[in-house]
Amino acid sequence: MTEPQTSSTRKTTRSPTTTTPPALPVSADWVRAVVTGAQHIPAPAGPGDYGSAAEVLRGIGLIQLDPLTRVSTAQRLTTLTRLPRSARAEDVDSSLWPAGAPLHGAPVSFEAFTKVACVFPIEDWPLLQLRRERVRETHALGLDPRMRAQIREVVAATENGAQIGAIEAAMGAARTTGWNWSQIKHAAELMVRTGELVITARNGIIRLFDLPERALPQEILEAAHLPPDQLRAALARRAAGTLAVMTVADFAHHYHLSAPDAARGIELAGLAPLQVQGWKDLAYCLPQLRDEAPGAGTSVVGGTSEPGTPEPGTGPAARSRLIGPFDPLLRDRGRARRIYDFDYTFEAYVPRTKRLYGHYVMAVLSGAEMVGRVDLQRVGEVLQINRIFPEPGHSTRSVTARARAGARTLGAQLGIEVELPGRPDDR
Protein backbone atom coordinates (compact mmCIF):
# COMPACT_ATOMS: atom_id res chain seq x y z
CA MET A 1 0.00 0.00 0.00
CA THR A 2 1.36 3.38 -0.99
CA GLU A 3 1.95 5.72 1.91
CA PRO A 4 -0.12 8.91 1.67
CA GLN A 5 1.75 12.07 0.76
CA THR A 6 2.02 14.38 3.75
CA SER A 7 4.02 17.45 4.46
CA SER A 8 6.52 15.29 6.31
CA THR A 9 7.56 13.75 2.99
CA ARG A 10 8.80 17.23 1.94
CA LYS A 11 7.44 16.93 -1.59
CA THR A 12 7.98 19.96 -3.77
CA THR A 13 4.78 21.94 -4.12
CA ARG A 14 3.63 22.37 -7.69
CA SER A 15 3.53 26.02 -8.63
CA PRO A 16 0.03 27.45 -9.03
CA THR A 17 1.20 29.12 -12.22
CA THR A 18 1.53 25.73 -13.94
CA THR A 19 -0.87 25.49 -16.86
CA THR A 20 -3.99 23.61 -15.75
CA PRO A 21 -5.40 21.17 -18.31
CA PRO A 22 -8.99 21.68 -19.44
CA ALA A 23 -11.64 19.90 -17.40
CA LEU A 24 -12.08 16.34 -18.63
CA PRO A 25 -15.72 15.22 -18.96
CA VAL A 26 -16.33 11.99 -17.01
CA SER A 27 -19.43 9.96 -16.26
CA ALA A 28 -21.16 9.78 -12.89
CA ASP A 29 -20.77 5.98 -13.05
CA TRP A 30 -16.99 6.26 -13.35
CA VAL A 31 -16.79 8.69 -10.44
CA ARG A 32 -18.96 6.46 -8.27
CA ALA A 33 -16.73 3.48 -9.06
CA VAL A 34 -13.41 5.21 -8.34
CA VAL A 35 -14.71 6.85 -5.15
CA THR A 36 -15.86 3.45 -3.90
CA GLY A 37 -12.66 1.77 -5.07
CA ALA A 38 -10.55 4.27 -3.13
CA GLN A 39 -12.04 2.79 0.06
CA HIS A 40 -10.47 -0.65 -0.64
CA ILE A 41 -13.43 -2.62 0.68
CA PRO A 42 -12.40 -6.30 0.48
CA ALA A 43 -14.21 -9.36 -0.82
CA PRO A 44 -15.73 -11.53 1.94
CA ALA A 45 -13.10 -14.25 1.70
CA GLY A 46 -10.23 -12.05 0.53
CA PRO A 47 -7.39 -10.75 2.67
CA GLY A 48 -8.09 -7.13 1.80
CA ASP A 49 -5.61 -4.30 1.29
CA TYR A 50 -5.60 -3.41 4.99
CA GLY A 51 -4.51 -5.72 7.78
CA SER A 52 -5.42 -3.59 10.79
CA ALA A 53 -7.44 -0.60 11.89
CA ALA A 54 -4.24 1.47 11.94
CA GLU A 55 -3.66 0.66 8.26
CA VAL A 56 -7.24 1.64 7.46
CA LEU A 57 -6.72 4.97 9.21
CA ARG A 58 -3.54 5.68 7.24
CA GLY A 59 -5.35 4.78 4.04
CA ILE A 60 -8.52 6.83 4.44
CA GLY A 61 -7.01 9.76 6.33
CA LEU A 62 -9.55 10.31 9.09
CA ILE A 63 -12.20 8.45 11.04
CA GLN A 64 -15.07 10.33 12.65
CA LEU A 65 -15.71 9.45 16.29
CA ASP A 66 -19.12 9.11 17.93
CA PRO A 67 -20.07 7.64 21.31
CA LEU A 68 -23.28 5.88 20.22
CA THR A 69 -23.04 2.09 20.48
CA ARG A 70 -26.41 0.88 19.24
CA VAL A 71 -24.49 -1.37 16.84
CA SER A 72 -20.86 -0.55 17.67
CA THR A 73 -18.71 2.56 17.93
CA ALA A 74 -18.18 4.71 14.86
CA GLN A 75 -14.46 3.92 14.61
CA ARG A 76 -15.16 0.18 14.72
CA LEU A 77 -17.86 0.30 12.06
CA THR A 78 -15.72 2.41 9.73
CA THR A 79 -12.62 0.24 10.02
CA LEU A 80 -14.43 -3.11 9.96
CA THR A 81 -16.06 -2.18 6.63
CA ARG A 82 -12.57 -2.04 5.12
CA LEU A 83 -11.18 -5.12 6.87
CA PRO A 84 -11.73 -8.78 5.98
CA ARG A 85 -14.48 -10.84 7.56
CA SER A 86 -11.88 -12.46 9.83
CA ALA A 87 -11.11 -9.11 11.54
CA ARG A 88 -12.32 -8.70 15.11
CA ALA A 89 -13.97 -5.60 16.54
CA GLU A 90 -12.12 -5.86 19.85
CA ASP A 91 -8.80 -5.35 18.03
CA VAL A 92 -9.78 -1.99 16.52
CA ASP A 93 -9.24 0.31 19.49
CA SER A 94 -5.92 -1.25 20.51
CA SER A 95 -4.72 -0.81 16.92
CA LEU A 96 -5.69 2.87 16.79
CA TRP A 97 -4.47 3.64 20.32
CA PRO A 98 -1.71 1.13 21.20
CA ALA A 99 -1.07 0.76 24.91
CA GLY A 100 2.14 2.47 25.96
CA ALA A 101 2.54 4.47 22.75
CA PRO A 102 3.56 7.69 24.53
CA LEU A 103 6.23 5.88 26.54
CA HIS A 104 7.72 4.11 23.55
CA GLY A 105 7.51 7.00 21.07
CA ALA A 106 5.34 5.07 18.62
CA PRO A 107 1.91 6.71 18.45
CA VAL A 108 -0.35 5.65 15.59
CA SER A 109 -2.95 8.39 15.72
CA PHE A 110 -3.98 11.70 17.21
CA GLU A 111 -7.42 13.05 17.99
CA ALA A 112 -8.56 16.42 16.72
CA PHE A 113 -11.58 18.18 15.30
CA THR A 114 -12.75 19.03 11.84
CA LYS A 115 -16.21 20.26 12.77
CA VAL A 116 -16.61 17.07 14.80
CA ALA A 117 -14.25 14.80 16.72
CA CYS A 118 -12.07 12.61 14.51
CA VAL A 119 -8.96 10.48 14.76
CA PHE A 120 -6.16 11.06 12.23
CA PRO A 121 -2.99 9.14 11.34
CA ILE A 122 -0.03 10.49 13.25
CA GLU A 123 1.78 11.28 9.99
CA ASP A 124 -0.91 13.86 9.19
CA TRP A 125 -0.28 16.02 12.28
CA PRO A 126 1.60 18.63 10.18
CA LEU A 127 -1.27 18.90 7.70
CA LEU A 128 -3.57 20.43 10.33
CA GLN A 129 -1.03 23.00 11.52
CA LEU A 130 -2.72 25.95 9.79
CA ARG A 131 -6.05 24.98 11.33
CA ARG A 132 -4.48 24.85 14.79
CA GLU A 133 -2.97 28.29 14.25
CA ARG A 134 -6.34 29.68 13.15
CA VAL A 135 -8.03 28.31 16.28
CA ARG A 136 -5.24 29.78 18.39
CA GLU A 137 -5.71 33.21 16.83
CA THR A 138 -9.48 33.07 17.18
CA HIS A 139 -10.07 31.47 20.57
CA ALA A 140 -6.92 31.29 22.64
CA LEU A 141 -7.30 34.83 23.99
CA GLY A 142 -10.23 33.54 26.03
CA LEU A 143 -7.95 31.15 27.93
CA ASP A 144 -6.54 32.16 31.29
CA PRO A 145 -2.73 31.96 30.87
CA ARG A 146 -2.34 30.76 34.45
CA MET A 147 -4.83 27.96 33.91
CA ARG A 148 -3.06 26.91 30.72
CA ALA A 149 0.27 26.84 32.52
CA GLN A 150 -1.19 24.79 35.37
CA ILE A 151 -2.71 22.27 32.98
CA ARG A 152 0.61 21.85 31.22
CA GLU A 153 2.37 21.35 34.56
CA VAL A 154 -0.05 18.60 35.59
CA VAL A 155 0.23 16.87 32.22
CA ALA A 156 4.04 17.14 32.22
CA ALA A 157 4.17 15.50 35.63
CA THR A 158 2.16 12.50 34.40
CA GLU A 159 4.50 10.23 32.49
CA ASN A 160 1.99 8.48 30.26
CA GLY A 161 -0.45 11.34 29.69
CA ALA A 162 -3.17 12.54 32.06
CA GLN A 163 -6.87 11.77 32.16
CA ILE A 164 -9.11 14.81 32.38
CA GLY A 165 -10.31 13.69 35.82
CA ALA A 166 -6.75 13.60 37.11
CA ILE A 167 -6.08 17.09 35.73
CA GLU A 168 -9.22 18.42 37.41
CA ALA A 169 -8.36 16.73 40.71
CA ALA A 170 -4.81 18.08 40.70
CA MET A 171 -6.11 21.60 40.16
CA GLY A 172 -8.86 21.33 42.76
CA ALA A 173 -11.67 21.70 40.25
CA ALA A 174 -15.09 20.07 40.14
CA ARG A 175 -15.15 16.88 38.08
CA THR A 176 -16.68 16.89 34.62
CA THR A 177 -19.82 14.74 34.39
CA GLY A 178 -21.25 14.02 30.94
CA TRP A 179 -21.68 17.27 29.03
CA ASN A 180 -21.43 19.29 32.24
CA TRP A 181 -17.83 20.35 31.61
CA SER A 182 -15.67 22.06 34.18
CA GLN A 183 -13.63 25.14 33.24
CA ILE A 184 -10.56 22.90 33.29
CA LYS A 185 -12.16 20.54 30.78
CA HIS A 186 -13.10 23.43 28.48
CA ALA A 187 -9.55 24.77 28.65
CA ALA A 188 -7.90 21.39 28.05
CA GLU A 189 -10.11 20.68 25.03
CA LEU A 190 -9.30 24.08 23.54
CA MET A 191 -5.60 23.41 24.13
CA VAL A 192 -5.99 20.23 22.05
CA ARG A 193 -7.50 22.29 19.24
CA THR A 194 -4.63 24.79 19.36
CA GLY A 195 -1.97 22.07 19.53
CA GLU A 196 -0.74 22.92 23.03
CA LEU A 197 -1.88 19.45 24.09
CA VAL A 198 -2.29 16.28 22.05
CA ILE A 199 -4.23 13.04 22.47
CA THR A 200 -2.43 10.02 21.01
CA ALA A 201 -3.43 7.35 23.52
CA ARG A 202 -6.33 6.10 25.58
CA ASN A 203 -6.78 4.11 28.74
CA GLY A 204 -9.76 2.04 27.64
CA ILE A 205 -12.18 4.68 26.43
CA ILE A 206 -10.57 7.45 28.52
CA ARG A 207 -8.51 9.91 26.50
CA LEU A 208 -5.03 10.82 27.74
CA PHE A 209 -3.84 14.42 27.36
CA ASP A 210 -0.14 14.80 26.65
CA LEU A 211 2.46 17.34 25.53
CA PRO A 212 3.17 17.36 21.78
CA GLU A 213 6.92 17.65 22.34
CA ARG A 214 6.80 14.43 24.37
CA ALA A 215 4.17 12.41 22.52
CA LEU A 216 4.99 13.16 18.88
CA PRO A 217 8.05 12.02 16.90
CA GLN A 218 10.54 14.80 16.26
CA GLU A 219 10.24 14.61 12.48
CA ILE A 220 6.47 15.11 12.76
CA LEU A 221 6.94 18.20 14.92
CA GLU A 222 9.49 19.65 12.50
CA ALA A 223 7.28 19.06 9.45
CA ALA A 224 4.52 21.17 11.00
CA HIS A 225 6.72 24.24 10.47
CA LEU A 226 6.97 23.92 6.69
CA PRO A 227 5.84 26.93 4.62
CA PRO A 228 2.05 27.47 4.77
CA ASP A 229 1.52 26.99 1.03
CA GLN A 230 3.35 23.68 1.15
CA LEU A 231 1.05 22.54 3.95
CA ARG A 232 -2.03 23.68 2.00
CA ALA A 233 -0.94 21.76 -1.08
CA ALA A 234 -0.10 18.63 0.91
CA LEU A 235 -3.51 18.66 2.60
CA ALA A 236 -5.26 18.96 -0.77
CA ARG A 237 -3.25 16.06 -2.18
CA ARG A 238 -4.05 14.02 0.90
CA ALA A 239 -7.77 14.66 0.50
CA ALA A 240 -7.67 13.88 -3.22
CA GLY A 241 -5.91 10.60 -2.50
CA THR A 242 -8.62 9.46 -0.10
CA LEU A 243 -11.75 11.03 -1.64
CA ALA A 244 -10.57 10.22 -5.22
CA VAL A 245 -12.79 12.87 -6.81
CA MET A 246 -13.81 16.01 -4.93
CA THR A 247 -15.23 19.47 -5.39
CA VAL A 248 -13.94 22.49 -3.51
CA ALA A 249 -16.94 22.09 -1.19
CA ASP A 250 -16.15 18.40 -0.62
CA PHE A 251 -12.58 19.24 0.39
CA ALA A 252 -13.75 22.08 2.61
CA HIS A 253 -16.30 19.87 4.36
CA HIS A 254 -13.86 16.98 4.84
CA TYR A 255 -11.41 19.07 6.87
CA HIS A 256 -13.76 21.93 7.87
CA LEU A 257 -11.93 24.55 5.81
CA SER A 258 -13.20 27.80 4.38
CA ALA A 259 -14.03 27.68 0.67
CA PRO A 260 -11.18 30.09 -0.21
CA ASP A 261 -8.67 27.98 1.74
CA ALA A 262 -9.88 24.81 0.04
CA ALA A 263 -9.71 26.38 -3.42
CA ARG A 264 -6.21 27.70 -2.73
CA GLY A 265 -5.01 24.28 -1.61
CA ILE A 266 -6.37 22.64 -4.76
CA GLU A 267 -4.66 25.26 -6.91
CA LEU A 268 -1.32 24.85 -5.13
CA ALA A 269 -1.51 21.07 -5.34
CA GLY A 270 -1.96 21.14 -9.11
CA LEU A 271 -4.99 18.85 -9.03
CA ALA A 272 -6.62 17.99 -12.34
CA PRO A 273 -10.11 19.36 -13.09
CA LEU A 274 -13.01 17.11 -14.06
CA GLN A 275 -16.47 17.92 -15.37
CA VAL A 276 -18.63 15.21 -13.83
CA GLN A 277 -21.89 14.33 -15.55
CA GLY A 278 -24.76 15.97 -13.65
CA TRP A 279 -22.57 17.98 -11.26
CA LYS A 280 -22.94 21.74 -11.06
CA ASP A 281 -19.39 22.42 -9.84
CA LEU A 282 -16.02 21.36 -11.19
CA ALA A 283 -14.40 18.40 -9.48
CA TYR A 284 -10.71 17.65 -8.99
CA CYS A 285 -8.51 14.60 -8.68
CA LEU A 286 -4.86 13.64 -8.67
CA PRO A 287 -3.33 13.97 -12.17
CA GLN A 288 -2.58 10.25 -12.35
CA LEU A 289 -6.24 9.39 -11.77
CA ARG A 290 -7.30 11.78 -14.52
CA ASP A 291 -4.90 10.01 -16.86
CA GLU A 292 -6.73 6.73 -16.16
CA ALA A 293 -10.22 8.11 -16.79
CA PRO A 294 -12.26 7.08 -19.84
CA GLY A 295 -11.35 9.47 -22.59
CA ALA A 296 -7.81 9.81 -21.24
CA GLY A 297 -6.50 6.37 -22.16
CA THR A 298 -8.09 3.78 -19.87
CA SER A 299 -11.47 2.77 -18.50
CA VAL A 300 -12.75 1.36 -15.25
CA VAL A 301 -14.76 -1.30 -17.03
CA GLY A 302 -12.41 -3.93 -18.39
CA GLY A 303 -9.37 -2.84 -16.42
CA THR A 304 -8.16 -0.28 -13.93
CA SER A 305 -4.90 0.50 -12.24
CA GLU A 306 -6.57 0.17 -8.84
CA PRO A 307 -7.10 -3.50 -8.00
CA GLY A 308 -10.47 -4.00 -6.38
CA THR A 309 -12.11 -0.93 -7.94
CA PRO A 310 -15.69 -2.08 -8.53
CA GLU A 311 -17.23 -1.86 -11.94
CA PRO A 312 -20.32 0.32 -12.15
CA GLY A 313 -23.28 -1.67 -10.84
CA THR A 314 -24.23 -3.67 -7.81
CA GLY A 315 -21.91 -6.68 -8.07
CA PRO A 316 -22.38 -10.01 -6.24
CA ALA A 317 -24.63 -9.96 -3.17
CA ALA A 318 -21.96 -11.70 -1.08
CA ARG A 319 -19.62 -8.71 -1.42
CA SER A 320 -22.09 -6.27 0.11
CA ARG A 321 -21.11 -4.29 3.20
CA LEU A 322 -23.04 -2.14 5.66
CA ILE A 323 -21.92 1.49 5.85
CA GLY A 324 -22.24 3.37 9.13
CA PRO A 325 -23.71 6.87 9.42
CA PHE A 326 -20.30 8.42 10.21
CA ASP A 327 -18.36 6.55 7.53
CA PRO A 328 -16.34 8.69 5.06
CA LEU A 329 -18.69 7.51 2.31
CA LEU A 330 -21.71 8.86 4.20
CA ARG A 331 -20.60 11.54 6.69
CA ASP A 332 -20.90 14.28 4.05
CA ARG A 333 -24.61 13.88 3.30
CA GLY A 334 -24.56 16.18 0.27
CA ARG A 335 -21.64 14.33 -1.30
CA ALA A 336 -23.35 10.97 -0.71
CA ARG A 337 -26.48 12.31 -2.39
CA ARG A 338 -24.50 13.58 -5.37
CA ILE A 339 -22.35 10.48 -5.89
CA TYR A 340 -24.68 7.66 -4.85
CA ASP A 341 -28.09 9.32 -5.22
CA PHE A 342 -28.53 8.34 -1.57
CA ASP A 343 -30.44 10.79 0.63
CA TYR A 344 -29.54 10.02 4.24
CA THR A 345 -30.71 11.58 7.49
CA PHE A 346 -29.44 10.33 10.85
CA GLU A 347 -32.58 9.78 12.91
CA ALA A 348 -31.24 8.72 16.32
CA TYR A 349 -32.25 12.09 17.76
CA VAL A 350 -35.52 12.35 15.83
CA PRO A 351 -38.68 11.52 17.84
CA ARG A 352 -39.76 7.93 17.17
CA THR A 353 -43.05 8.94 15.59
CA LYS A 354 -41.26 11.17 13.06
CA ARG A 355 -38.60 8.70 11.91
CA LEU A 356 -38.81 7.48 8.34
CA TYR A 357 -36.47 4.50 8.69
CA GLY A 358 -35.28 3.90 12.24
CA HIS A 359 -33.09 4.80 15.20
CA TYR A 360 -29.74 3.66 13.75
CA VAL A 361 -29.77 3.05 10.01
CA MET A 362 -26.83 1.83 7.94
CA ALA A 363 -26.52 1.95 4.16
CA VAL A 364 -26.24 -1.24 2.11
CA LEU A 365 -23.29 -0.89 -0.27
CA SER A 366 -23.16 -3.42 -3.09
CA GLY A 367 -20.48 -2.97 -5.71
CA ALA A 368 -20.42 0.74 -6.41
CA GLU A 369 -24.01 1.46 -5.42
CA MET A 370 -25.92 2.10 -2.23
CA VAL A 371 -28.91 -0.12 -2.90
CA GLY A 372 -30.78 0.12 0.38
CA ARG A 373 -30.70 0.83 4.07
CA VAL A 374 -31.17 -1.31 7.15
CA ASP A 375 -32.38 -0.43 10.64
CA LEU A 376 -30.48 -2.62 13.09
CA GLN A 377 -29.23 -2.81 16.64
CA ARG A 378 -27.12 -4.95 18.89
CA VAL A 379 -29.12 -6.68 21.62
CA GLY A 380 -26.74 -8.59 23.88
CA GLU A 381 -24.95 -11.12 21.70
CA VAL A 382 -27.30 -10.69 18.75
CA LEU A 383 -27.17 -8.24 15.83
CA GLN A 384 -30.87 -7.70 15.24
CA ILE A 385 -32.13 -6.48 11.89
CA ASN A 386 -35.40 -4.63 12.40
CA ARG A 387 -36.27 -3.59 8.84
CA ILE A 388 -34.70 -3.44 5.40
CA PHE A 389 -35.56 -0.67 2.94
CA PRO A 390 -34.66 -0.94 -0.77
CA GLU A 391 -33.72 2.18 -2.69
CA PRO A 392 -35.83 3.05 -5.74
CA GLY A 393 -35.00 0.81 -8.68
CA HIS A 394 -33.88 -2.15 -6.56
CA SER A 395 -36.15 -5.04 -5.65
CA THR A 396 -36.83 -5.96 -2.04
CA ARG A 397 -35.58 -9.49 -2.65
CA SER A 398 -32.26 -8.30 -4.09
CA VAL A 399 -31.65 -5.71 -1.38
CA THR A 400 -32.63 -8.15 1.37
CA ALA A 401 -30.02 -10.63 0.13
CA ARG A 402 -27.38 -7.93 0.12
CA ALA A 403 -28.35 -6.56 3.53
CA ARG A 404 -28.22 -10.05 5.00
CA ALA A 405 -24.79 -10.67 3.50
CA GLY A 406 -23.47 -7.40 4.89
CA ALA A 407 -24.99 -8.11 8.30
CA ARG A 408 -23.45 -11.59 8.41
CA THR A 409 -20.01 -10.14 7.71
CA LEU A 410 -20.44 -7.46 10.37
CA GLY A 411 -21.83 -10.00 12.84
CA ALA A 412 -18.82 -12.25 12.33
CA GLN A 413 -16.50 -9.30 12.98
CA LEU A 414 -18.43 -8.36 16.12
CA GLY A 415 -18.41 -11.99 17.24
CA ILE A 416 -22.19 -12.19 17.61
CA GLU A 417 -25.13 -13.93 15.95
CA VAL A 418 -27.31 -12.20 13.38
CA GLU A 419 -31.08 -12.25 13.70
CA LEU A 420 -32.56 -11.84 10.24
CA PRO A 421 -36.09 -10.70 9.40
CA GLY A 422 -38.43 -13.02 7.59
CA ARG A 423 -38.17 -13.35 3.82
CA PRO A 424 -40.38 -10.67 2.26
CA ASP A 425 -42.26 -10.95 -0.98
CA ASP A 426 -40.38 -9.59 -3.97
CA ARG A 427 -41.57 -6.18 -5.06
From TrEMBL:
Protein name, per record? Winged helix DNA-binding protein
Which portions of the sequence form the region Disordered? 1-25, 295-321
Which species is the source of this protein? Nesterenkonia sandarakina
PANTHER family, per this entry?
A: CYTOPLASMIC PROTEIN
Which regions are flagged for Low complexity bias?
1-21, 302-316
